[in-house]
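Molybdate transport system substrate-binding protein
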Amino acid sequence: MKKTLFTLLLVFLALPALAGNTLLIASGAGYKTVVEALSEAYAKQSDATVERIYGNMGQIIGQAQTSGKVDMLIGEEGFLRSSALLLAESAPLGTGRLVMAWPSGKEEPADLKSAAVTRIAVPDPKRAIYGKAAREYLENSGQADALKDKLVVVGTVPQVFTYLTTNEVDAGFINLTQAVAVKDKIGGFREMDQSLYDPIAISCIRLETSPSPEAARNFAKFLKTGTARSIIAAHGL
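Predicted structure tokens:
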């Protein structure tokens, strides 16, 4: 966690003061693939430069508060708006969905409470929205107490994926967008019952302190186009 935060800080310090038609977007790490695709598509049809950084929600909120360089945040809207950041209008992207994934070469765990399942990776519930969703799912499905000693808490969704690919865990909770992006590198995934965790509204929100407010508004307009909506849908949102 400390290494990730330090790396993010170095990225911010290395970035020049951004203004004009250059945009800096800070996004939850679990949405990297869709944000990269959207940014590349936008750059092709405009003269804008889109810079991107990633981390869990706690990390990107903290960096946005201290750097003064972030134009837009992408993540769960309620979580972001509960922070002390001065946030302006938002452009909805879609609904995030929680999935359970398992490593390549293994069968889908039929029962997480079975003795065959010893380690389950989850993002940090205090800092990552899918960690919070996983905690709610386990509590509401009546599995929390039985599984508490099996949980391996990590910083972000991509870190859960790393644990899955190295076979350090028997299962892990990630978001559907990440699962779609890495489906060829894991054994499989199954979507969790959405009624057992709070709805996850994923949005792109402009900061009131945005150094490039016009560029941010233009990107928000792009997110409503058919091109952008097709990209978003293809990534599980």
